[in-house]
Each structure stands twice: as C-alpha cells, then as structure tokens.
Input
Amino acid sequence: MPSAIARRQSPPVVALFTANPSSTTPLELEGEARAIAAELDAVGLGGVLALEHHRATTPSAMQRVMLLSQPTIVQFSGHGRASRPATPRHRGRASRDLVAEPVALAGGIMLHGDHAAAVRVVSGRVLGDLFATLGATVRLVFLNACHSAAQAQAIAEHVGFVIGLDGAIRDDAARVFAVALYRALALGRTIAEAFDLGVNALMLEGLDDDAALPVLRTRRGADARKTRLVAAPKADDGVSWDVFVSYAHADREQVLPLARALHQRHFRVFFDEWEVSPGQVAVRRIEEGVEGSTHGILALSPRTMDQPWVQQEYAALLEKAVTHDRLLIPVLVGAGDTRLPAFLRTRPPVDLRGLTHEALRDRIDVVARALRGQRPGPPPRTALLPERTPQGGSATAARGTRPGPPPRATGLPERAQPSSGSRRSTARKPK
Output
C-alpha cells in the first residue's frame, strides 16, 4: 500500500465499450458489465479498478473516451465479423459471431454507425492506428468479440498486451471469461496468469469448445508473465499491517463493521481482539501494532478521548502521521456530538453515523481509497446501469498463535449470480 500522503493517484481506468446494433443478434452485454462489477465487489476489490461502461459505442465515441479517460485497460464487447465466409459454430444459440456474406467482406469489430449506417465495421488496421495515436496509457486491450484475433494482432504492434478470440464464442462463455480475467487482474495476478485463469474458468463451466478461442498477443519485448496492472495484496504476516484501528471499547459494535469491511477489501487491519491472544501482554502487542502499521484510524464518539488507552494510541499515531507522512483518519461513530481533538481538526473526518447499509458501504469505500493512496476523485463519467438500456482462550492461545481476523467471504452474493443459461435468438444480417 502507498505510504506517503502526497502520493495520491487514481485507480486504473477500464474503458468498457459495448455495441449491439439493432440489425445484429441481441447480446446480454449489460449482464456482462454487471457481472464484472459484482465479482469485483464480491472479492472486496470494487475500488481497485475504475470501470467505465460506454454503451452503444460509435467510432467517434470510442475516440472521444480514449482522449478523455486515458484508460489503462480497453475492452470491447459485442459482435465481430470474420474476413472470410464462416458459419456460426453454435447454431440456435446467441453468439458474438455475425454470419459472413457470400461475397468477400472485411473483418472487424462491429460498432454503431455515427450517422445513417446501422453498423460500422472497424478493421484491425484502423484500431491499430487508433492505439498508435491514443494508446500511450493503455496496457491491455481485450476484444471480447468473435473473430477478433486478427484485430488483436494488429493492435499488438502498438499495445503491450491484447486478447482476442479466434472464432465464434457463445455469449455466456464470453461473460465467464471476462469475469475470471478481471477477478485475477484485480487480485494482482500477472496478465498471463489472468488469461490462463479465464481459459480455465471456461473449462470449469464445461465450455471446453470455447476455451480454445481466447488468444493473447504481446508486443515485442513485453512479458505477460511478469506484468501486473494492480499490485497484489500483501500477505497477513502478523507483524505488519496497513492500518491500526484505535477505538474505545464502548464503541466496539460501531467500529467492528468498519474493521471487517476493510479486512474484506484485503487490507491488513490491526484490530486488538484479532491480534491480542489470551495470556499475552496487551500493551506490548498494541505497541507492535502501532509501530508495524502504515496508517491509523481513530474512531471517535463523545466518550472516546476520555479513555487513557485511546489517548496513548492517539498520541503515537499522531506522531507517526506527522513525522513519517502517514495517514491518520478520524472516523465518527456512536450518537451525539463529537468534538475532534485540536490536531485532528485539520483532517476531514469520515462520518459513519446513522447511515443505511448502502451509504455505509460507500463511506467505507472512501476510507479504502485513501488507504490505497487514491484521491477521492470524481464520479465515473458513465453510470453502470442507465435508466434506459440501448438494445442489444482457547486452542489459539495454546498454540501460541494470534486470534487473527475472520475469514474473508468469497464468491458472488446470491442476488448477483449471473445466469448460465444461453440466450436463444436468430441472427440477422446487417443492412
């Protein structure tokens, strides 16, 4: 985790372009975007990547977003067209393949037309030119569309890593691969590992035919086995922590959800009851916690600063914040008016009092971004879900081990499980 307050940055931007022109088979592209976001939230990494979803993408919109957002990852999801006559491999099921015309046609990804044309096919050469001009910040391009391997090869002349599909893929398989890819990237895996895990996810779901389709192209000199787009979470070693949580024990029930939420977001949290074993000298362990923690949180209620232990922890954390340029974040809990200590009044507090579940999660995300060294930042330029969607004393003590934090929850919440069933529809030829 970044340690200096001055070293603030924004999370890597993922520009997710989707297009499903009305003359093509309907795809569940909204479901794919939701599934990616839900999976990142489920594994506690919702703020690690900034997902910007751009719907009904036109060529000019793609160029505009590249200019404005300067993304690290660019993904296109939708239909692709082969440059040679081809027959869909999955008849009767929705796939991201457009049936080739009897006459020769150029291949490419299929965007919405800017003007009268319903469909605009963009070739690999044109995409390569786009990334040659605007791809300075782009590390990875992902073309989640059928027959996009040729376009991936063209883009790889200008971008380090490009993923395409060498054939026609089913819609559900495209979603499965994308979710697994982003989960691995957000957890700090290398690009090669994330790609391999995406392929493995297809096999685990019984989509073996589709597992042969994704291809990873690299620019000369780039090594996907050594490149990470996000730093991997540090191991919980019991001697170093990302944040020390100081609080009055009378406020435990209000502070514990904060500690758990930060732990779920893969922060190493020093919370006294997770670290002080029965029979252990508490003061020594708390001193180790303060010394071994990068940042501090002081949970404040009207009674907090009357507690001698909290006063000692506050003094130590404040000294560390001032002399070592660390964060000391005041967090308001409990009921009643709380007066901040004099040296904390220059630091904006985070108010967790009287919030709904959703609002509390948003406030904790603010704390998480600060601990990651990220500035608060503006809201995403495009909301993920628009109002109108375009078509398309114990044994622990005896062993001499610390109690430790609770296990992190894994897997998607039940309400966010994407459907694994196929979407049947009849492909229509472009006008």
